[in-house]
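Narrative summary of target 7.
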Amino acid sequence: MRWSFRRFIWLLVAGFILVAIVGFWLTRIPEDKTIEIRVIIKSTDDSIEFWQVMKDGIDTAAKEFGANVVVKGSKTETDIDEQIALVEEAIAEQPDAIILAANDYDRLVPVSEKVKESGIRLFIVDSGIKADIAQSIIATDNYKAGKKAGEEMKRQLGDRPTQVAIIKYVLAAASVSDREDGVRAVLGHDPKIDLLDTYYAKGLEENAYELMKTIMNEHPDVDGIICLNEMVSVGGGRAFQELNLKDKVVMIGFDSPIPVINLLEEGVMRSTIVQKPFQMGYLSIKAAVDAVQGKNVPKVIDTGSEIITKNNMYEEEYQKLLFPFYDK
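Modeled conformation, tokenized:
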């Protein structure tokens, strides 16, 4: 009897040890296996620096966290059907997570719901959708960034009656729509400011170039123009410079490609609202990896924005934002 009881005790202890070992290794599996992540950005157009910088952040995080990350995007930000097809393709590959920068606030909802229904974690980067289904949103607070643009325009124009125009890149992307809402929240309720209807560039830099000329032709007394993203700032800025509007009209842009930096240095563009696409890319991968490994991730990660002018653009902290490819 004693022997049987002793044997029972040893078997019981061995069982506990075995369970502990198995449990330990099971909890380590998510950290040890290669995490598969698919990222669908708005555009793979190499001329748009914003997405190139974001991909740099994605690549840096992928190497640091040992994830296998594939980045794809439609050829243009207006090709919503292609982006939907890319999400469908990613779902079929059954990765651990899909990170999406949505080209359309409404039309990407059904396929995003399909991501979640397929048991794949969904993360939003840069631009969201009209559904609260993402595990985390990593983006600029675009409404706040739009308010910064509006407040900067008021500061530049002073306390006199003025007329202001807005040029928008794409129609239904949440990021740009939120910026417009932010601008209008600041300028739209000021009785001294005549805020014109928004001009829409239909996703083309060349259209922004032509729209700048159209605005000045239709509203020769306009005092300020706000461009709501990189390509509108580049195209609109090119026309702005050709029309020699530097000392007549206040132009405020978004983002910081080299043409915009040049306009800022020359005093042609008064200010630009700069986002942090490297951080967006890096933190979106980190959030996805953390979530797959069972860690808690914030519902919203605001990567921030800064107002950069000719006066502060040479400060070290802003140089890092203006020239992210050289800050290694």
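The chain has a mean pLDDT of 90.
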